[in-house]
Amino acid sequence: MPTQEKTVTSQIAPLVDRSAWKKLTAHYEKLQEVHMRQMFADDPQRGEKLTAEGAGLFLDYSKNRVTDETLKLLVELAEESGLPERIKAMFGGEKINLTEDRAVLHVALRAPQDATITVDGENVVPDVHEVLDRMSKFADRVRSGEWKGHSGKRIVNIVNIGIGGSDLGPVMAYEALKHYAQRDLTFRFVSNVDGTDFAEAVVDLDPEETLFIVASKTFTTLETMTNAGTAREWSLAAFGGDKASVAKHFVAVSTNAEKVTEFGIDTANMFGFWDWVGGRYSMDSSIGLSTMLAVGPDNFRAMLDGFHQMDEHFRTTPFEKNLPVLMGLLSIWYNDFFGSETVAVLPYDQYLKRFPAYLQQLSMESNGKYITTEGKRVTYNTGPVLFGEPGTNGQHSFYQLIHQGTRLIPCDFIAFAKSLNPLGRHHDMLQANVFAQAEALAFGKTAEQVKAEGTADWLVPHRVFEGNRPSNVLMAESLTPALLGALVALYEHSVFVQGVIWNIDSFDQWGVELGKKLAQAIIPELESDEEPSLEHDSSTNHLIRKYRKMKGM
Ligand code: F6P
């Protein structure tokens, strides 16, 4: 933790004093009543015009409550907020994670071998590729069966132990790329300190055939270290406590070699990464080892290439056609002007079932901040609540509220033209729902239309859809490893754009510390029959006493 005093001052005016912000405020007053029906009627080309493409992704953002003027002002806001300079600073390895005094270089993880990206005067790209090569060799050995367990059996089960960024990326990518996975290998992911998670993950596994990846940037996270310890006991028990077995059944992914050694894993079996990779930005570092084991080094590198394509799109494309910039700015528009408090991400692909959960950490841990980089309380709303489910499942649960609830919930639909599992008419049926939902949200159904269908008068209000509810449609040909990389990078950079405009540090996460610290103090209190600490409030103390009683103490 940096201890030196530092004064952060910005040349840029506070957000609400920026001229583009003021113009947007006035513009919003005029635009808030305008219906998208009108916008589409005014410009028959709108559906073709308000689109952009990059890295294999097509974005239709025409069903948003924006005009040319809105877009012009939003781009002006990005420029006035210093976004061009901040993009340069990030890609240039500057320490833009101010509170942790770190560079933010997930883009270096997918840079081609001949690129140069320097941190503290040193090119980090060769190190990235050295780790990638080691990962590839290891993955090939496990996938081919050459890497054997302690008793000589082939490894067929891989259990990733990690939490947050050391779990959500790996599990999301494993599910997303399952189509490309080696099917004679079984993958499990243990994250929760709830013993049930570990117990259920290994219930049908043979320890002699099981390899654990302990994935933790810090190698100090309570949940992960507890699960790793339990895994070691479970594994050792199968080998009569022979510690030599650990080398065959445990590998580590971390930035902390010292702690890895302390745990008993040889650093020869450790795959490193660096403090300039944030946990929630690490699925393409060695944290992605489980992904590489599942889909193989070539597919993993194809995924990295997709990430890189989107990085280049973001770095070089004018803001008016820049996917992450457009999506980030639209998010600001709803969040800060329309007062939207949530966003929904709705992938119409079963393989992306964990994508919303992944994005929750990416977005909410990055932009859930009320303090500016200068240490002042913001006077506007920052990161929205993100939620989502794959379509069409969500349609049969929470879409009602998106269509007819009192809140405005901007939606991102994600569609693919080709299915990885073509089955009769399934795919067209699935994707038709994307277009139908976006259409229904935008245009709704008027009372006249409802009446014309012969609906009884008293029922008409219930069956009216007011519409004017915004959405983006993202579409790609099919869910390939490269496309997944591009999609993740799109959201990473969109989150970055929003953080720059809000002038917050999107790369720290101090907000998770207090709860962690309090839990450490409470754990022994749950195990002791002494009076709980006087430092707690009466509610916490009462809960502790009640818990102990209920568990039979
Ligand atoms: O508690 C939050 C957090 O620090 C996340 O930012 C991170 O992804 C997760 O915990 C896991 O951390 P680690 O990889 O160090 O175990």
Automatic annotation (TrEMBL):
Pfam families: PGI. It catalyses: alpha-D-glucose 6-phosphate = beta-D-fructose 6-phosphate. The active site is at residues 365, 396, 516. Keywords: Cytoplasm, Gluconeogenesis, Glycolysis, Isomerase. PROSITE patterns: P_GLUCOSE_ISOMERASE_1, P_GLUCOSE_ISOMERASE_2, P_GLUCOSE_ISOMERASE_3. Gene3D superfamilies: 1.10.1390.10, Glucose-6-phosphate isomerase like protein, domain 1. Its main location: cytoplasm. This is Glucose-6-phosphate isomerase. The lineage of its organism: Bacteria, Pseudomonadati, Planctomycetota, Planctomycetia, Pirellulales.
